[in-house]
Amino acid sequence: ALLGLGRMDEALASCDRARALKPDYAEAHNNRGYALKELGLADAAQAAFDRALALNPNYAEAHNNRGAVLLGLGHADMALDAFGQVLAITPGYAEAHHNRGHALKALDRLEEALAAYDAALALAPGDAGAHLSRGNALKALRRPEQALDAYDAALSLNPGYAEARNNRGAALLDAGRPGEALAAYNAALALNPDYAEARVNKSVLLLLMGEYLEGWELYEWRLKQDADDDYSFPQPAWRGKESIEGKRI
């Protein structure tokens, strides 16, 4: 119940109490792992899932959760194996098909990823997230018009899905429809004004359209984006105001 309420610290304490009462309680180890994952403690979460699976090797949910942690740690091959074990136990586990698609996409096996998302949607057609993931795979395969259909399906299920509106904008740009792309980015930002990726995407589009002043200002949102680029330096940033005569950048 605490996990469902997002109260992860309390959930973790409750799972630990359950483990103290019954150390071989696989469900308590699995739930503990989920709480640890949500708290950002991936290595400890993996250990908890491993313990749950040592107690119950056929625990499909624990295999699925373990795969999600491995994927987050960048171990896509190992995650793919974990999701395969889930589906060997429970072939109709829609979330595992969805997660398997993520692992395949991370391995750049895009056609297989698309098939995995299709399998997830065959089992759970009302999953807006799976439609989004399918759109992302199609976009990566350079099929923007098909990607748009997938994003529209996600939005028909969840009109307030900011990520789907943002990704729809990117697909519209790929399809050569910049005006509609700008409207999609604006729609995403109306739902979530602090959505850094949408602001960066909008900035690049504005720059392409020659709107340099607003474009460069918005591009500063890249510093708030969750990305591989590391912009943290000990030196102060130069914003063009101070003289750099005799200095180095």
Give the structure's gist in a few sentences:
With 249 residues, the protein is mostly helical.
Could you tell me the radius of gyration in angstroms? 22 Å
Helix-strand category: mainly alpha
- Beta-strand percentage? under 5%
Distance between the termini: 53 Å
SSE string, helix = H, strand = E?
Answer: HHHHHHHHHHHHH
What level of helicity do the residues show?
55-70%
Judging from the principal axes of the Cα atoms, what is the shape? globular
Mean pLDDT: 95
Largest sheet: none
Counting DSSP H or I runs of 4 or more residues, the number of helices is: 13
Quaternary status = single chain
The total beta strand count reads 0
Report the uncertain regions: none
List keywords for this structure.
249 residues, mainly alpha, globular, 0% strand, 13 helices
Q: What layout of secondary structure does this protein have?
A:
Blueprint: H1 8-21, H2 26-38, H3 42-55, H4 60-72, H5 76-89, H6 94-106, H7 110-123, H8 128-140, H9 144-157, H10 162-174, H11 178-191, H12 196-208, H13 212-219
Helix pairs in contact: 1-2, 2-3, 2-4, 3-4, 4-5, 4-6, 5-6, 6-7, 7-8, 8-9, 8-10, 9-10, 10-11, 10-12, 11-12, 12-13
Description:
The chain has 249 residues and is mainly α. The protein is 68% helix and 0% strand. It has helices at residues 8-21, 26-38, 42-55, 60-72, 76-89, 94-106, 110-123, 128-140, 144-157, 162-174, 178-191, 196-208, 212-219. Helix 3 packs antiparallel against helix 4 and helix 6 (94-106) runs antiparallel to helix 7 (110-123). The termini are far apart. The mean pLDDT is 95.
